[in-house]
Amino acid sequence: MKKKKDEFIDEEIDEFFDEEIDDVIDDFEDLEDEYEEVEDLPKTQKKKKTKKPMTTKKKIITAVIVVVLVAALAVGGVFVYNMFFGGTNDPSSVRVTEIDFKMDEGTRVLAKNVYTASSTTNTYNLVEALNLEAGASVAEKESSTIASLSGNNITITGEGEYVITITDSTGTKDCVLTIVDGVNVSTEEELLKAVEEKSVVVMQKDIELDDSGIVLNSNMYGNAFLLDATNLYGSGEQYWNSIVYVGGEIDITIKDLHVTGYKIAEGEALNLDINLSRHGMILTAYGEGKTKLTLDHCFLENGHRGVYISGADVNMKDSIVRNCADATISVETKAGCKPKLYFKNNIICNAKVAGMLFWGYTGGDATNYPEVTIEGYLDIYNWKTTSDAAIMPETESTHKMVNNMIKDAINDEANASFAYVEDGEKYIHCAIVIISTGSLSDNVPTFVGLDKIGFKERKLPMPPMAKAIVHNPRIIGYVDSPAPIGPKATI
Length: 491
Description:
Layout: H1 2-34, H2 56-84, E1 93-95, E2 107-115, E3 120-121, E4 123-125, H3 126-129, E5 137-140, E6 147-150, E7 153-156, E8 160-168, E9 171-185, H4 188-196, E10 201-203, E11 207-208, E12 214-216, E13 220-221, E14 226-228, E15 242-247, E16 250-255, E17 258-260, E18 269-271, H5 274-277, E19 281-296, E20 299-303, E21 307-317, E22 320-324, E23 327-332, E24 340-351, E25 354-359, E26 371-381, E27 383-385, H6 399-410, E28 420-422, E29 425-429, E30 432-437, E31 446-448, E32 456-459, H7 464-467, E33 470-477
Parallel strand pairs: 2-9, 9-10, 10-13, 11-14, 12-15, 13-16, 14-17, 15-19, 16-19, 17-20, 19-21, 20-22, 21-23, 21-24, 22-24, 23-25, 24-26, 25-30, 26-31
Antiparallel strand pairs: 1-18, 2-3, 4-7, 5-8, 6-7, 8-9, 27-29, 28-29, 30-33, 32-33
């Protein structure tokens, strides 16, 4: 009797499976025809294959799945198809403008020491150390107790301000040198050596990083020179690798530093996609509540994330962060830490996901939510059309499904008032996005100063299926028209 019963079940399931799967394939082919205008739409090709015997258990499971698919197609086939397969989810393309990032006129930071073949010295040729043009000369403006000049050679014995005159092909000008106890670097080799020795680093020239990112344990002064990491990463899954990393029980400052993950030509269009993510994170501040970092007048651009903060206190002022395939500022909520963040007079531009993204996926509770203080201006140029809004980057496996569901919800007629309309186009100001995933059921950073910059917080429309993946998402930015920084504004 058992054998006959199994045979009967097998026959019934075979008939059901064959009929339903053909219907599903036909439905999907109809949907493909309906959406044939979408680029790169996956095409289903039927190939005749020899059927392998299926166990009764597998057939029952398969039949249940087919029933669910058929039901979904019956009540919302277009939605389901779009959620997993539809749309190209094309990355945002931004036109990059050149920014004249420089020090205040007539100022420069100078380290006490330079490298020699075997050690360091505090007496050296100042023209060479400053990388001045051939034939340039320097002279002491006034006598000092911390440094002295003999011709072009300087001897440094202390720290503080030291005023010199520089004569070159453009004429003679004063320069205020701020002398610190550290080492001047002009090459990758010198930079990596200084970092390894945990010395204070003072850049005196643009440097290309080809061999390694840097882990800082002491202050770094960039003198507005460029740290170019174009050739450092760029292939494979480099998303979590950092160009500049700060961690541990430290309290340091990075000042006047320009870092790029990918150097582009002026006017070049840059795609905020997975290829940009492969150039890594520009700067990471990672700790267990004991890392303190001050970013003062820095320019960070072109990578997966601009600044990734996890368990660290960060003070960021007078800085620019732009062009990221994830978020320009990414803040993680996790157990055991409560980041304190301070932002004053910063500009943030062009992120695929958000100008600032506050997220978490496991552990943590109300005692770990970040505290954020905003003073002065916080100019975030990160408007998205409602067809291009995203809360997950391409490096996340669920990005297409979640982002498509979000876009469907935002563009639903029931949420028409959610969009900001300008010249007939619908936009969302993706300035600050707050999400939680996994076992972190909520994420509630506290903000001081949002009202002074005109930002408002709203819940992001979410279909029920997306809520199982992303919990209680909110978006903060400009809502009322006219916005101080509109969708077409540029820096």
